[in-house]
Amino acid sequence: MSSIIHMPLSEMEALIEENLQTLSQLRYFVAELSPEPYRQALGDHGRHTLGKHIRHIIDHYDALLGEGTLPATATIDYEHRQRDTSLEQSPSRAAQRLAWIESRLQTLKQREPVHDAIQLVYPAGGSTLDLESSLGRELAFLTSHTIHHMAIIGLLAESLGIGLPEDFGVHPSTLRHWRREAAALSARSA
């Protein structure tokens, strides 16, 4: 790698917090589900389940965080994820795994700022690209990726008659925008 990226702890903490808030919301949702709606096949071809989307999210965090020291490796390959299909079947197992991921992310807060250069393996056009990245960049990606799938999960849940909070699957940047708009509206009407 040609460069090493250094991120101050406060910036890293902000990225970690966004991931923790998103994962916490997802974990609470999953923990309340029974296996039947969690596994129910939806869509024209029956390819979508709540469980598959939740497993997919977990797989991506596992690719980054792994089992060992953080980050798990200097090379991340989201294409070759573990894909633990038992997480698609058991909402309680998925909720436990999400809690574990949250605890792993919490440990990142206690770290001193580190040189966190990461090599990202990305398949494109029949070959593999090795892209420079960082732990911070990958945490930013995971927030957006998780929110994207939570929006899909929200649509699937609504089709099953499962109610969700208004902010479920809404990106933290959008939530901040909504708060600014509400504050501005409140200030104008005061």
TrEMBL record:
Q: Which UniProt keywords apply?
A: Metal-binding
Lipoprotein is among the record's keywords: no
Q: Where are the transmembrane segments?
A: none
Q: Is the Metal-binding keyword given for this protein?
A: yes
InterPro entries noted in UniProt:
DinB (IPR007837), DinB/YfiT-like (IPR034660)
**Pfam families listed in its UniProt record:** DinB (PF05163)
> Per its UniProt entry, which superkingdom is the organism in?
Bacteria
Family, per the entry?
Answer: Belongs to the DinB family.
Record's protein name: DinB family protein
* UniProt source species: Litchfieldella rifensis
